[in-house]
Write a structure and sequence with these properties.
Layout (H helix, E strand, L loop, with lengths): L3 E6 L3 H16 L4 E7 L10 E4 L2 E4 L5 E2 L4 H8 L6 E3 L7 E5 L2 E4 L11 H6 L5 H9 L14 H26 L8 H4 L1 H9 L3 H14 L2 H7 L3 E4 L4 H9 L5 E4 L3 E6 L6 E5 L4 E4 L1 E4 L3 H8 L4 H8 L3 E12 L11 E4 L9 E5 L1 H4 L8 E8 L7 H16 L7 E12 L5 H12 L5 E3 L9 H19 L1
Parallel strand pairs: 1-2, 1-14, 2-10, 7-16, 14-20
Antiparallel strand pairs: 3-4, 5-9, 6-9, 7-8, 11-12, 12-13, 15-18, 15-19, 16-17, 17-18
Bound molecules: flavin-adenine dinucleotide.
């Protein structure tokens, strides 16, 4: 049988997953396949970027993945990485919220959307009126939501303003780097959205669901299997292991795809690289950010390109800081803190992970590693930014002196925003893609922003690509 050529554009986790699954399925089905993976940057993994220096393991982008979505764990297991998985330190699972200049404990279970009545009653984050408001949701009429509504509007209705703004807004900002008044409830809170369809009061219905899951042992399983996991060598270990499994692929780094053009007669897709290289692909998988896919598709389909290009993306900056343990007076007895929105006017902090508490092997004994998320795309040098962040953290964590080392990572247009109506936009994109039978999309802007969803998106694109080849 003759060899088929598949080109994947973008070597982030979506593209690497697509390449891995293509080769795996091809081998199983004895399909002769040539897979070419093209990556613009000088490293593989896209937003996944681990730096090791002076005994510290520093993540520039993601630092872990959730385990409730199975695709990352499954891939780690297939790649023989199970022994390399690193769960969250069980002693450091508490999360705090910075509100009115103080760190308040996030009510137990809220991080995983498995709320706990005791945690709700005890929290110092909410007034009694607000706690009552959450409970009183039971007598509110069941609203007839349109197809979609913002997270802010949706949750304020059921849980009141304090709970929405002090607890949910920082959690959502931590995941999406986005604003609850813009984010889609349907896409970003799918479980609560489903619960709201059936019940009057989502708080009570969630509590009942939590109790049922506790009784059936599901939550206990979750607690023994940390909600978040990473790898001992950092998430780049996943990237390196995937690459080691792609020996059969043609891996092109520091090369960009600059044009693609389907051939009307053969159906194949002509691909041009920035160095003048050309390919004739049977199938192309675009695993770039949405706006980069839009640039490539514009010459052949302006409507599709507009849909992709107008998905809003927020920038992200992380600042990691290394200290001696003696320089930080706070016990760092948790995973870190998120910042309530009204506090963010005061400083540049969006969140701070106490990395060496959450994942102790990330720092040498006697040292502390912190990682701050910056809440805006600031026009400051790295040194100025580090100074601002240290000054914001100093009174909160009792920091003495200056960090021994700092790492700044800036990610432009990195976080796709699933704004209200995103599901309709994705439906329009899918409809439009039916015209291009040999081009597939995979990426964090479709149906899930996190690493597990990107792995799933890459796998699904690989399966569809092979189906087209017959
Ligand atoms: C700071 C930060 C923290 C995060 N934290 C977490 C977390 O803790 N857990 C989690 O699950 N997720 C997290 N995320 C989200 C997650 O990391 C990303 O959504 C995911 O890694 C995106 O993977 P991707 O392969 O779809 O895209 P990318 O990683 O963006 O990869 C796309 C690749 O395409 C390449 N490219 C673009 N155009 C071209 C072209 N024309 N030719 C060739 N190559 C091209 C780019 O160079 C890039 O490498 C975080 C993201 C950021 C930015």
């Amino acid at each position: 049988m003759f060899e088929r050529q598949i080109v994947i554009v973008g070597g982030g986790i979506s593209g690497l997953s697509a390449a891995y699954h293509l080769l795996k399925i091809a081998e199983r089905k004895s399909i002769r396949l040539k897979v070419t993976l093209v990556e613009r940057e000088s490293w593989w993994g896209g937003k996944i970027l681990t730096v090791t220096e002076g005994g510290f393991t520093v993540e520039g982008g993601p630092d872990n993945f959730v385990t409730v979505k199975p695709w990352a764990l499954e891939l780690c297991s297939e790649l023989g990485l199970t022994e390399r998985l690193l769960p969250t330190n069980p002693k450091a699972r508490r999360v705090f919220i910075l509100w009115r200049g103080k760190l308040h404990l996030l009510p137990h279970g809220f991080l995983t959307f498995s709320p706990d009545l005791k945690g709700l009653l005890e929290t110092s984050l909410l007034s009694w009126q607000s706690k009552l408001r959450v409970a009183l949701g039971v007598i509110l009429p069941k609203p007839n939501w349109d197809e979609d509504v913002s997270v802010g509007k949706f949750l304020r209705y059921y849980l009141g303003t304090e709970m929405t703004e002090r607890v949910i807004a920082p959690l959502m900002a931590g995941v999406y780097g986005g604003d609850i008044e813009q984010l889609s409830a349907r896409m970003t809170l799918p479980t609560l959205w489903q619960i709201a369809k059936l019940h009057r009061n989502i708080a009570w219905a969630s509590l009942v669901r939590t109790i049922r899951r506790k009784l059936s042992g599901q939550i206990q399983n979750q607690q023994t299997q940390s909600f978040f996991m990473t790898l001992k060598g950092g998430l780049s270990e996943l990237v390196e292991t995937l690459l080691a499994n792609l020996k059969e692929a043609n891996l092109l780094q520091k090369r960009s795809v600059v044009a693609l053009m389907p051939d009307g007669e053969t159906g194949k897709v002509a691909i041009r690289l920035d160095d003048g290289g050309e390919f004739l692909a049977d199938v192309v998988i675009l695993s770039t950010p949405a706006w980069a896919a839009a640039d490539l598709l514009r010459p052949i389909d302006g409507t599709l390109a507009d849909e992709l290009y107008t998905i809003p993306h927020n920038h992200a900056i992380t600042v990691s800081l290394a200290f001696e343990r003696s320089q930080v007076q706070h016990p760092l007895n948790g995973s870190g803190f998120l910042v309530a929105p009204d506090e963010q006017d005061e400083n540049l902090l969006l969140a701070c992970t106490w990395t060496s508490s959450k994942y102790p092997p990330r720092a040498p004994q006697g040292k502390v590693l912190l990682r701050a998320f910056v809440n805006e795309w600031v026009d400051l040098s790295d040194d100025e930014l580090v100074e601002e962040i240290v000054n914001a953290l100093r009174p909160l964590l009792g920091i003495i002196g200056e960090p021994q080392k700092a790492w700044v990572f800036r990610w432009e247009r990195a976080m796709p925003q699933y704004t209200v109506g995103h599901h309709r936009r994705i439906a329009r994109i899918s409809e439009r893609m039916r015209h291009w039978r040999r081009i597939f999309l995979a990426g964090n802007y479709l149906t899930g922003i996190g690493i597990p969803d990107c792995i799933r998106a890459g796998k699904e694109a690989a399966e569809k690509a092979l189906r087209v080849l017959g």
